[in-house]
Structures are given as structure tokens and as C-alpha cells.
Design a protein that fits this description.
There is one protein chain. By secondary structure, this protein is α/β, with parallel strands linked by helices. The protein has five domains: 11-115, 3-Layer(aba) Sandwich (GIY-YIG endonuclease), CATH 3.40.1440.60; 127-196; 213-389, P-loop containing nucleotide triphosphate hydrolases (Rossmann fold, 3-Layer(aba) Sandwich); 400-443 and 500-636, 3-Layer(aba) Sandwich (Rossmann fold), CATH 3.40.50.300; 647-737, Alpha-Beta Plaits, CATH 3.30.70. It contains 21 helices and 32 strands. The protein has a seven-stranded parallel sheet with strand order 11-12-10-13-14-9-15, sandwiched between helices. Strands 16-28-27-19-26-25 form a six-stranded parallel sheet, with helices on both faces. Helix 18 (616-624) packs across helix 19. The structure holds adenosine-5'-diphosphate and zinc ion (2 copies). Adenosine-5'-diphosphate binds next to helix 9.
Length: 743
């Protein structure tokens, strides 16, 4: 007799990396062993006429779609998910909170090759170390082969430690020929084991410093919380010893054989930090940032995932790196805007780090000299514990801040007489001067002296910036550029004049004003090529540079011990903005730039040139400090229900077709009306502050609510419906939850 057995089909619910707000059902492969597969595993599935990589979310037996219409999974790429169940739920949470498609969110957690379905194998790394004669050789004998000399110096400085292929590749992309020559000369050998892993209890290469009581208190408090979730805000001015606190907490975490994730705003700007970690710890350290190759980043990712590395030092995108033995997350310079992704999946690495730490039951340390107002508010609400380092470590003194009223004073290319005099005095003492101007190029405007014509970008609402060095006019908002015009194209006769001030222009006047002094200019134009910045930094630190001139690049992370005078050439530029975040950012910038001065035992002075010497905000900051400033601004925000007292989401819309945004906003008006039951304030639509950019017309609409849950409930209903509108397909739109700038 024929026995019929009804077997319920096994269905894989998956996310696919495409911009749609839904998941997809497929039939599981017939031969699948369900015990051998877990959510998060990568699959290959048929999609339309193509194959796509998918991520398994759920194994189920029911589908809203007719089973007979479901296609089958083609291939299972990972038997075990590379992500832990907690990390997968973190990504699902983030997709919901930022209202961004789940497939795209999950794929951002993976390195590029893994997103494309390549196998997740960590290739076996070779290690190299010095031979006995390599240890005793005098590297000066290798003077004629400078790369070999530098590599021997590097090895010798490491006391018999070995270096891996990936570390060597990071040192120099053509490391292999150098290593081979040194092997042939009997100075290096390939070693069988990674000597650093032999004894995993020893994590320290060089001993820690003796802490001051505040540092010790901070370290003790965090270490007491290892193994459970808690957020700490480590507040301390630059030079107060925050990094030393991180290092000592990390030491304890490593001794428990756990891993640490350290996020920094811009790792390429802080090679010193990496050096300091490598100097202190003998464990394997993975580094991940955008200047590395895809392969290097994938290696770093897998080294953390498999537990071979114990520390990851990375930028925002490293946040989702899987950790085999999670122990601690540190976010340095937590106020920095670059922790917020500004395109695509617009997540805040700081906020998501907290959610991650909570899921993993580990502590988070947020560090800054100028904490974000959100974080200070969270301290006030006792959500975070404040750890305060009030003084600079060692003997150094905090710099003195002063406003310099430049109204009616003689000014040469942005430098007032009194400032020039101060600079001469500082330089005469053989100390360094740092000049900050947050505008690169020669001048922001080219104007005709006879007819008033201004060189504008044809595709943006913006003026073209003069770049004399390269003989170019450039738009800083799109790729437009031209040869520098010599004659007015409008009246054909008039003389063209540069208007305003950029770093290039200041650099030229410095040459005339300070004869024989060496100036370096650090901005995006001068430091684009790899290694240039490192080179300049080294020149600065060895004292061959007198004047350092630069943009915001100077505000981040660098230590310039011999700088005793800092001047902010145009502090007023930050005072007038329609974005309520601007005052916070300006104050942070001022304090951060000031922090570069007067380290070591030399006291520093910070001069801010202004035409608004009575500006209340500047005065609060200078006379009462950053915290009083922050209190004042928080009170203002409270009155206006602005973040962190209210919650915002910004809908940005742009299109080449001028009418398309208008039609889009008309179409969503009904949806907003239908779903906005929780009194979400709807502001706009209005033209964006830069109403045209790269040829597209730009508009925006702001949603605001004092209750986060109400705003989220509204967005949750609104966004999926919005995606279905045909008018939405005629524009480019994006939703930015908790925007950090309103542009
Ligand atoms: P931050 O990260 O706050 O800028 P760092 O940790 O880099 O501060 O410390 C600034 C300088 O002070 C560094 O040169 C560091 O080596 C030194 N330093 C930090 N803590 C101590 C300490 N307890 N004793 C002596 N020097 C210290
Ligand atoms: Zn003209
Ligand atoms: Zn442009």
C-alpha cells in the first residue's frame, strides 16, 4: 500500500542586498541539515534572472506566498553564520530604527568580498623576525638601501618580536622585495610561530605609566563593570591622559582573554595612536579604515571574528566587526561628526555602539575633551557615569584662551598686526605657531572689479573656489572645475579679484612676513597623497617646522608639543548658521584646536580673531569653559524641544527635474496626515540650505517629536508606504534619523 506522508516544506526567510523594505522566502535546499545552519549564514538565491547573495534571517514552515511559487536556495555559502545571533539582532534593530532596508544593513557588516559571496577563509599568515646577526647589526651599514634600513630599525625597535605579512603590507605595500633582500643577507628569517601568541597571558610589551588618582579612579570604575553593560563618559582635555586610561582598561580586558573594539573618527589622521597601542601591547592588533585595501580589511575582520586578534582599531564602519570574545567597546572623540554615516545607511556609530554593548553585556567608554551635548545630557540624567580627568597629565598647563578684537585693525591676508607681533615673539623663542583656518584653496570667491560678476558653479548654488597653486577654479560640492580665468567673461574687460581667505592665500603671505621661517600647510589639497601627512607630522615633531597652517585636520588627535601659540584666524565664520548644531560644533572646534598648544612643559596661548568680541556664546566658552557653555546651550535647546530633548528625522529629496520634488511632497502629504497620530511636528517642505547641488534641486522636510517612540511609530508606518509611491521613484530621497547636520 502506498503511504502518503505530508512533510511541511522548510522555508528560508532571507534578506537580500537590494533597496527594498521587505524580506523574501525561499525553499531550503533539499539536502539541508538544519542543525548545521544558523541565521546570518550567507546563501546564494535566484533573483529575477540573476543570482544574488542573501542572508538567512529565519527558518520557518509558513509563507504568505504560495509554496509552489517559491524558488529554492541555490547554495549555502556558510554553514555557520559569521555573525553571532546577537549581532544579527543588532542589525535587525538598526534596520528598524534607521528605517533602512535590512539586506543593505546586514551587508554593511561584511567586508566587500564576503558581500559578493567569496569564501570566508583567513589565509595562513607568515611571520618574519630578526636573525641573531640581524639583531646585532648596525643598521647604518644599510644606509644605501634606505628601505632595508628602515625595516631593520623597525624590527630592532621591537625587541625580538616578529611581524606578520599583513603588518608588513601596512608598513609598505612593496614590503616583499625588501624582506627578501634582508633574508638573502641573513638578517631576517621566516619564523615558524607567531612569537606573540606563545604565552597568551602576557599581553604587555611595555609597562604602563603610573596613574594620577583621577586616572586610577576611572580605570577602576570601568574595570569593575567588565562583564556587564554600562556607559561611561570619560571627559578630559587633550593631554589629560585619556589614552593612558584606555590602555590600562584594555590591559585588564586582555588579561581576561577578551577582545576590545576601539573606534576613532579618522584613523589615518592618528598613526600615533596605532603606534602607542603596538608599543604597549604584545597581542595581535587589527586595523580597519577606508585607506586599506578590501583584502586588508577583510583579513582584519576575520582576525577578530576568529579571535586571532585581540584589539581592533578602526573607524565608524568597524563597529559591526564580529567579536569572538567581546569584552569592551571604546569610542574616542565621541563628539566627532564622522561617527555618523552621512549617506546610505545613516547610522550613528556612537548610538549603535551602545545598543551593541547592551546586547553583548559589556561596558562602553566614550571619551572626549568636548563631549557631545547628548552625552552630557545623558550624564545629567544618570544614564552614563561621568569619569572626569580635570587636569593635564604630567606637568603641562592648560592654554589661555583670548579673543582678539580685529575691528578697525590693520589686517594682512587675515593676520592682524597684534597677531603678527605675537607670532614673531613666539618664533623668536624657537617655539612653533599653529594657524587654523577652516577653508582650503586660495579664496572662496572670484569677483570682477568692474561689473561684479562672480564665478559660480553651474551645477550648484555655490561659488567656485580659487586654487592658485593648480591654476584652477573648483567647486567644493561637485566635481566641476575650470582653468583659472584671467579675464571677466561677462564684461570682457574687468579685472578679476579674489575675495575672502583660504589656507593657500595665508600661506603666501606667511612667506613674505616671516622670512626664513618654514611653514607647512595641512589641508585636503596638500595631504592627499599617501604618506605626505605622516611626513609633515614628523617634520613638525622634529622641530624643523616653524609655522603650521591648516584646516580642521589640525583639530584632530595630533600632538604638537612645541606649539605654544595657536590662532584661529576667523572664529566668526562659525557663528552664523541656521543649523542649531553649529554653536556646539564651533565650541568643540575651538577647544580641540586649543588642545594642540602648550603640551609638554610649555604653556600655550590661543588667540581668536573676531569682529564679535561681545558674542555671549564665545564669552561663556572663554570665561567659564566648555561645560558652562554646554549647560547654556542645553537650556536653550530644552526650551525649543530640540535634541536631546526632542527627536528628529530629516527627509531629504532631490531631483534633476525641478517639479519632481514638489509632486513627491504632494503625494506624501496624505500619508503623513494618515499616519501622524502621535503629534509629530512636520516642518517643511522647504528648499535645502544649498538649494541646488550637482545639478539637482534639493528640498527637505523635518519630523520632530518629544517622544522618540511616537516619532518611530510614525516612521514605521510612513516609510514603507512612501517607498511604494510612484512619485518616490522620480526623485532621490533619503531619511536621516537623528541627523547631525541639517544640510
Ligand atoms: P589624551 O588622550 O587625553 O590626550 P594622553 O593619554 O595621550 O592624553 O596623555 C598625554 C601625555 O601625557 C602623553 O604623552 C602621555 O604619555 C602622558 N601621560 C598620560 N598619563 C600619564 C601619567 N599618569 N603619568 C605621566 N605621564 C602621563
Ligand atoms: Zn566683469
Ligand atoms: Zn558644483
Amino acid at each position: 500500500m502506498l503511504k502518503l506522508q505530508v512533510v511541511a516544506p522548510v522555508i528560508f526567510r532571507v534578506a537580500i542586498q537590494i533597496p527594498v523594505y521587505r524580506v523574501f522566502d525561499y525553499l531550503a535546499p533539499a539536502d539541508i541539515d538544519l542543525k548545521a545552519i544558523s541565521p546570518g549564514a550567507r546563501l546564494e538565491v535566484p533573483f529575477g534572472k540573476a543570482k544574488k547573495i542573501a542572508y538567512l534571517l529565519e527558518i520557518t514552515q509558513r509563507s504568505d506566498i504560495d509554496i509552489n511559487k517559491l524558488k529554492s536556495v541555490l547554495r549555502v555559502l556558510d554553514r555557520r553564520s559569521l555573525l553571532s545571533a546577537k549581532d544579527l539582532s543588532l542589525l535587525q534593530w538598526a534596520s528598524g530604527y534607521y528605517h533602512y532596508p535590512i539586506g543593505e544593513v546586514i551587508s554593511t557588516a561584511f567586508p566587500i568580498a564576503l558581500r559578493q559571496g567569496k569564501p570566508a577563509v583567513l589565509k595562513f599568515e607568515k611571520y618574519y623576525c630578526l636573525t641573531d646577526s640581524g639583531k646585532s647589526t648596525d643598521s647604518n651599514e644599510l644606509k644605501r638601501t634606505p628601505k632595508q634600513k628602515r625595516l631593520i630599525d623597525k624590527f630592532q625597535a621591537m625587541d625580538g618580536e616578529c611581524l606578520s605579512e599583513s603588518e608588513l603590507a601596512e608598513w609598505n605595500s612593496n614590503w616583499r622585495s625588501t624582506v627578501n633582500s634582508l633574508i638573502n643577507n641573513g638578517l631576517l628569517v621566516q619564523c615558524d610561530v607567531n612569537t606573540r601568541n606563545v604565552n597568551s597571558n602576557v599581553v604587555i610589551r611595555n609597562p604602563a605609566l603610573t596613574c594620577n588618582p583621577q586616572q586610577q579612579d576611572a580605570i577602576d570604575k570601568v574595570c569593575a563593570q567588565l562583564g556587564s553593560f554600562k556607559t561611561f563618559l570619560l571627559e578630559g582635555v587633550t593631554g589629560s591622559g585619556k589614552t593612558e586610561v584606555y590602555l590600562q582598561i584594555i590591559q585588564t580586558v586582555l588579561e581576561q582573554n577578551l577582545q576590545v573594539l576601539v573606534l576613532v573618527p579618522e584613523i589615518t589622521l592618528t598613526p600615533q595612536l596605532e603606534e602607542r597601542f603596538k608599543h604597549r601591547f604584545s597581542v595581535n592588533i587589527a586595523v580597519s579604515h577606508s585607506k586599506l585595501t578590501d583584502k586588508q580589511r577583510q583579513t582584519a575582520w576575520l582576525q577578530m571574528q576568529t579571535g586571532q586578534c585581540s584589539i581592533m582599531l578602526g573607524t565608524r564602519s568597524a563597529l559591526f566587526t564580529p567579536l569572538k570574545r567581546p569584552g569592551l567597546i571604546i569610542l574616542d572623540e565621541e563628539h566627532d561628526g564622522s561617527f555618523k554615516q552621512q549617506e546610505g545607511f545613516r547610522f550613528s556609530a556612537r548610538d549603535v555602539a551602545l545598543v551593541r554593548a547592551k546586547l553583548l553585556a559589556i561596558p562602553v567608554v566614550l571619551g572626549s575633551a568636548t563631549p557631545s551635548l547628548e552625552s552630557l545630557h545623558n550624564v545629567q540624567r544618570q544614564r552614563y557615569e561621568l569619569l572626569h580627568l580635570p587636569e593635564r597629565a604630567g606637568n603641562s598647563v592648560e592654554p589661555v584662551l583670548q579673543l582678539l578684537d580685529v575691528r578697525n585693525k590693520s589686517i594682512q591676508e587675515g593676520l592682524s598686526e597684534p597677531l603678527i607681533a605675537e607670532m614673531h615673539k613666539t618664533l623668536a623663542n624657537k617655539e612653533q605657531v599653529l594657524l587654523f583656518l577652516n577653508r582650503r584653496g586660495f579664496a572662496p570667491t572670484l569677483i570682477c572689479h568692474s561689473c561684479g560678476w562672480v564665478a559660480k558653479c553651474l551645477r550648484c548654488d555655490a561659488n567656485l573656489v580659487i586654487h592658485f597653486d593648480e591654476d584652477r577654479l573648483r567647486c567644493h560640492h561637485c566635481a566641476q572645475e575650470h582653468r583659472l580665468l584671467k579675464q571677466c567673461p561677462d564684461c570682457k574687460g574687468g579685472q578679476l579679484m579674489p575675495l575672502g581667505l583660504g589656507t593657500e592665500r595665508v600661506e603666501r603671505v606667511l612667506v613674505d612676513l616671516f622670512k626664513g621661517k618654514v611653514t607647512v600647510r595641512l589641508d585636503r589639497d596638500t595631504t592627499q597623497r599617501k604618506g605626505v601627512l605622516e611626513n609633515y607630522l614628523q617634520q613638525i615633531n622634529t622641530g624643523t617646522v616653524d609655522i603650521i597652517l591648516g584646516t580642521q585636520m589640525l583639530a584632530k588627535g595630533h600632538h604638537f608639543p612645541n606649539v605654544t601659540l595657536v590662532a584661529i584666524l576667523d572664529v566668526d565664520a562659525g557663528l552664523f548658521s541656521i543649523d542649531f548644531h553649529a554653536s556646539e560644533k564651533l565650541a568643540q572646534m575651538i577647544i580641540q584646536v586649543s588642545g594642540r598648544a602648550g603640551r609638554a612643559d610649555k604653556s600655550g596661548k590661543v588667540i581668536m580673531q573676531t569682529r564679535q568680541p561681545d558674542h555671549p556664546l564665545l564669552n561663556t566658552l572663554i570665561t567659564q569653559g566648555y561645560n558652562s557653555f554646554a549647560k547654556t546651550v542645553l537650556e536653550e535647546r530644552k526650551v525649543a524641544d530640540l535634541p536631546p530633548f526632542g527627536y528628529q528625522a530629516l527627509l531629504r529629496v532631490q531631483a534633476f527635474e525641478p517639479d519632481a520634488p514638489k509632486l513627491f511632497f504632494q503625494a506624501i502629504a496624505d500619508l503623513i496626515h494618515k499616519f501622524n497620530t502621535g503629534h509629530t511636528l512636520v516642518l517643511g517642505p522647504v528648499a535645502a540650505p544649498m538649494a541646488k547641488r550637482s545639478g539637482q534641486y534639493r528640498y527637505q522636510m523635518l519630523f520632530q517629536n518629544t517622544q522618540r517612540t511616537q516619532l518611530q511609530a510614525f516612521l514605521k508606518m510612513f516609510v514603507p508606504e512612501l517607498t511604494q509611491l510612484k512619485q518616490a521613484k522620480k526623485v532621490r530621497w533619503s531619511l536621516d534619523v537623528d541627523p547631525v547636520d541639517l544640510y
